[in-house]
Amino acid sequence: MSCRSQLSSWQSLQELANKMKNTHLKDLFSQDKSRFDTFSIQLPGLLFDYSKNLITANEMNALQSLAQQTELTAWRDKMFIGEKINFTENRAVLHVALRNRSCAPIFVEGKDVSQPIAAELSKMHAFVNKVRSGEWKGYTGRVITDVVSIGVGGSNLGPQMTTEALQNYADETLRIHYISNADGVQISKVLKQLNPASTLFVVSSKTFTTSETMANAKTAVAWLKSVANDDAAVAKHFVAVSTNLAKTAEFGISSDNVFTMWDWVGGRFSMWSAIGLPVALYLGFDAFIELLEGAFEVDEHFKDAPLTENVPVIMALLSIWNTTFLGAKAQAILPYDQTMHMLPAYLQQAEMESNGKSVTFSGEVVPYTTVPLLWGMTGINGQHAFYQYLHQGNTIVPADFIGSIKPVVEVNNHHEILMSNFFAQTEALMSGVTTEQVREELTAKGHSTQEIENLVNHKVHKGNRPTTSILLDKVDAKHLGKLIALYEHKIFCQGILLQICSFDQWGVELGKGLASKIQNELENDTITAEHDSSTNGLISYFKKKRV
Ligand code: F6P
Predict the structure, then answer these.
(1) DSSP secondary structure string, 373-427?
(2) 273 close to ligand 1 (CB < 6 Angstrom)
(3) 456-482 burial, b if ≥16 CB within 10 A, otherwise e?
(4) Are residues 224 and 193 in the same domain?
(5) pLDDT digits over 275-330, tens only?
(6) Integer angstrom CA distances of residue 101 from 41, 75, 109, 310, 489
């Protein structure tokens, strides 16, 4: 498999990028009045506008050639038919099977996985109904009022982000709480508000070995037992979501209370599995199904739309154009919707844990930049925090703006205020303000020539900052499902285009292993290990002061 940089499309893109460095987006817009029509796509319920990127038909054609030369569609098809494309872990990549709303079977190693998926969904459905209806009782016979989800990374971010995004659709049946950090502050704050007799814990961990999740789960069990004084109470207050049934049994959770997932579901792509149980408990099972349906619609689009009209493919091509060819090192995620405030964190794991890597499929060092650093915050808040950097900083940060036509909560003209800022920011980042415009403005305001000279360079905005806009009809379960599936497939395409193995996370494992060794040292004075002088110094300073 030759390195991507040897492909003819790659070389054309490099040449185009060199030329594009002298082009301004504003000029592209004045030369071509139909840019928006050419470079935007409407899908049911959403608009994707990529016209404010530094591209013309030439760049898009070259990017499309890259997609063809990297056999993107063949790889996509391999994913959908359950081939083991996660070859560093020898696994299929089948989160799409979890939301397959058609009757078509999907096979892994000759076995149709749609049957076990349907069975697990039915089990979730029955359980959700039991808890929400009050049929499920705690150890004293009280109904459940609070659900606590314990999990981290992919076993937390998807459900919590979704819960936050859809909180306005929840009824009063259950309150929900999330615990992800090993920091005792979080669990003690949550438990303080709760009554053990009416609290249900969902312990979510694909491996059931993640130390922070296990520590939180053990603390929660101890908290329950300290009041219940009865080991049997655990069965009424703890359920688990995991692939590791041996470990869930060892932990003391009865197999009836374990919801399973499969090794072909990556943690960061698992919110469509029983990992989504907290969402289904909080919002009701129908809302969970709507989420799956929204994602399924995008799966169908990704499978069927020609590459030139395929939104996730174009999202990935643009990321590579901006990062690998034009040199951007970061990418901002800017939801103009308060309920989507966790989207940047969710996408950080999805994209950076997937593609924050630097060797090719065959393990050679890649001679190009792979994915950018993702970060972001909700608009308008971000405008008053870091947008100064976006407008006038000396590095370019392409940004995704995400908003909706209808607000979740209609309050006076708040949505118009919010969205006018969204549109204004993309316009300003694109067009900027020239020296002449600044001079004119200051002259009109009556500034002296000297004052103008002193100020002019400070007020110039170069513009030419690429942005992509996604407008959803509304932030509801279906549209959120669509949005997340778009980003998931974008990430898949980035991996193929860049020749990166997107589905492992060895980089995270390294720190995990070291932390467990150091934990032994921190907890046991007789254990000392050899580290570098800084790590040794930190550990011994901590231990001395901790006494
Ligand atoms: O962050 C590393 C990671 O392995 C993620 O990929 C995963 O989502 C998270 O830890 C949690 O893992 P588990 O679900 O096994 O507890």
Answers:
(1) EEEE--TTGGGGTTHHHHHHSSS---EEEEEEEE-SS--TTHHHHHHHHHHHHHH
(2) no
(3) beeebbebbbbbbbbbbeebbbbbbbb
(4) yes
(5) 999 999 999 999 999 999 999 999 999 999 999 999 999 999 999 999 999 999 99
(6) 24, 22, 21, 20, 17
Is 508's C-beta closer than 6 angstroms to any atom of ligand 1? yes
158 lines ligand 1 (CB under 6 A): no
Q: Could you read off the pLDDT of 478-488 as tens digits, one per residue?
A: 999 999 999 99
Q: How far apart are CA 443 and CA 450, in angstroms?
A: 11
What number of residues does the chain have? 547
Which of 261, 289, 317 delimits the end of a domain? 289
Residue-range definition of the domain harbouring residue 475: 39-69+305-431+465-498
To test the pocket of ligand 1, the residue of 155, 216, 357, 502 to mutate (highest count of ligand atoms within 8 Å of its CB) is 155
CA-nearest residue for atom 10, ligand 1, is 153
* Interatomic CA distance for residues 223 and 186, integer angstroms: 14
Rounded Cα distance, 165 and 482, in Å:
13
Q: Which residues of the chain have pLDDT under 70?
A: 1
CA separation for the pair 461, 434 (Å, rounded): 7
